[in-house]
Amino acid sequence: MSELAIFGGPKSRTAAYPEWPVWDERDVQAVTEVIRSGRWGGFPYPGPKTAELAKKFSELQGGGFSVPMINGTVTMEVALRAAGIGWGDEVIVPAYTFQATATAPMAAGAIPVIVDIDPKTYCIDVRAAEKAITPKSKAIIPVHLGSNMADMDAIMELAEKFSLIVLEDCAHAHGAKWCGQGAGTIGHFGSFSLQSSKTLSSGEGGILLCRTPELAARAASIIDCGRPHALGGGAEDPNGFAVQGTNYRLSELQAALALAGIERFPAQAKQREEMALYMDEALSEIPGVRVLKHDERHTTRSFYRYVFAIDPHQFGMEHDLLCSALDAEGINCWIGYEAMNNYELFQPQTSTLAVPNAFPEYFKFNEMNLPEAARACEHEAVWLDENIFRAGAKGVDDAVAAIKKIQKNAKELSADAK
Ligand SMILES: Cc1ncc(COP(=O)(O)O)c(C=O)c1O
């Protein structure tokens, strides 16, 4: 019989990894309390739970003025609009990320200019970003991807040189710190998602961290149908209702869930961080596995998924084969996003979005040179679920044993894939 679970052999991990989201009676009570209060959402915004969430989230990240909203996509659209960025402006984004990093600027009318990633971290390549700058460049969105942070020192330097707004996409980086400073508090804005799979969740939701009370007031006004706001203790937005607003308000029920999650978050993040170090050491001994660079300035490593790379030639197979075999072994994993230039959504021929159709010259994907993103997305990257890191050393040991077992049986797997 084959050793591999994918061919009917014994699984490397039979016990299920811990479930996500984690919840207990505190969540039930928190939501029940909101239901009984009769204040489920609406305005004046924010309601009491949402205001408490804003305060607690800024405390968690160690700064910034929080504006909760309905998800971690509109947070980015709103940030750009609050900064006055819109139709025809260019916003630099990395080629390796969830599509929201590019659709959000488009929703504001701006053009996402896609640049390659740094293979050492899979985050934006700052030199590639610099080469992409034109007089129309207004903002840059570094994504703290998977388990890494973008080089925020280099990004802030670049932003200063070219007067760019920096919007950190922190959908994967709740609790992470760079040189002791919280993700999302280094740039002008930090955008966080509270969607179900994220490490702080309210089912759906998002929080925009703003550097100044004025930016926060403007963002709050945009998401609250244009009403004037004085969030974060700043002055009321002098534009008041003149701001073109919409309704992106978070409900009180969701805020209550996120508040319950915040209490558990530090212990979960600490456990993940400790086990990530343990995983780094174990993986670095496997031939053909490349542990992504952990920059020493990334002082608190709080993460969404643990990402590593394989060299398919040396490891003995492509990443998709490894992931299918790992799944069968009981190790939850994913090959990650496709490179941005492969997203149908942005091709002018197939897109229903206004921006690719209005500016087709920016979306000539065949002419783009994004080799590092292509390598990561098509051959190398492996994303391990966060729950592996909440299952103690045994959780990590089982995952590592599975990777070794699969590599040992690479020939059998590759022969079957042919
Ligand atoms: C990198 C990244 N940015 C933005 C988002 C968007 O967040 P949301 O799903 O809350 O809109 C996600 C979420 O999946 C993400 O992974």
Can you offer a commentary on this structure?
By secondary structure, the chain is α/β, with parallel strands linked by helices. It has 2 domains: 237 residues, Aspartate Aminotransferase, domain 2, CATH 3.40.640; 152 residues, Aspartate Aminotransferase, domain 1. 38% of the residues lie in helices and 12% in strands. The chain has 14 helices and 13 strands. The strands form 3 sheets. The protein has a 7-stranded mixed β-sheet with strand order 1-9-8-5-4-2-3, sandwiched between helices. A 4-stranded antiparallel β-sheet has the order 10-11-13-12. Strands 6-7 form a two-stranded antiparallel ribbon. The longest helix is centred in the middle third of the chain and has 32 residues. The radius of gyration is 22 Å and the shape is globular. The structure holds pyridoxal-5'-phosphate. Pyridoxal-5'-phosphate binds next to α4.
The CATH architecture of the largest domain would be 3-Layer(aba) Sandwich
Number of strand elements: 13
Number of helices: 14
Give the rounded overall mean pLDDT.
95
Helix content percent band: 25-40%
Distance between the termini: 20 Å
Bulk shape: globular
Strand residue percentage: 5-15%
Hetero groups bound? Answer: pyridoxal-5'-phosphate
Structural class: alpha/beta
Low-confidence stretches: none
CATH topology title of the largest domain: Aspartate Aminotransferase, domain 2
Query: In CATH's first tier, which class of the largest domain applies?
Result: Alpha Beta
